[in-house]
Amino acid sequence: MTSKLTKPELPAGFAYFPNLISFQKGLDLYEHLTGELNWQQPSIQVFGKFHPIPRLQSFVADEGVHYAYSNHTLDNQSWTQPLAVMRNKLQGHYNQSFNALLLNWYRDGHDTMGWHSDDEAELGVDPLIISISLGAARKFKIKHKTTGQQWELMLEHGSCLVMSGHSQQLFQHSLPKQSKVKGGRINLTFRSIVK
Ligand SMILES: O=C(O)CCC(=O)C(=O)O
Ligand SMILES: [Fe+2]
Fold first, then answer.
1. Which candidate, 134, 144, 191, 186, places its Cα nearest to that of 163?
2. CATH 2.60.120.590 fits 2-191, yes or no
3. Which residue's C-alpha comes closest to atom 1 of ligand 1?
4. Helix/strand/coil for 64
5. How far is the centre of ligand 2, averaged over its atoms, from the C-alpha of 189 (Å)?
6. CA 82 / ligand 2 centre spacing (Å)
7. pTM check: above 0.95
8. pLDDT in tens, 90-130
């Protein structure tokens, strides 16, 4: 059963902070990202057939940092000024350096992300991942890998979801389809990639 949960009730390793970014700053950043970044729609291989992923992606990282995602590598872009500012703030707050940023653009409610854990070897053990949402609010689901217990929350414009500890080891997460959602959403995940 899926239960509607607020911040204190999320499983260990997940924490939700609404309004990290003000409404207007969030809109400005959304405009910046859609206009300035190079967005791609890579194809991934499922049972031998190639399918374009149901969303657009962009990857920003320090020079020499690469992230192999479902058997393909995304083109590396350098930090734009607003993204560099945001990274600096997060690094100061969390006392950790983030050398990579994966961005996903869900053009409307038909774009999705399937169940997965961000547990690639290059993220290291128990990674700290900071996930920032802009644009249309979307449902985010969390599922325990062995018990199957599920949680659901809304990721709102300007919010921050922190994933840490055993969150990737014990749980999967997904962004389900919501056909009624007409607006776009951009999600930014700040990551540390071990070279
Ligand atoms: O769009 C989201 O909120 C989820 C993104 C995500 O899970 C990922 O980039 O690994
Ligand atoms: Fe993820």
1. 191
2. yes
3. 187
4. coil
5. 8
6. 23
7. no
8. 999 999 999 999 999 999 999 999 999 999 889 999 999 99
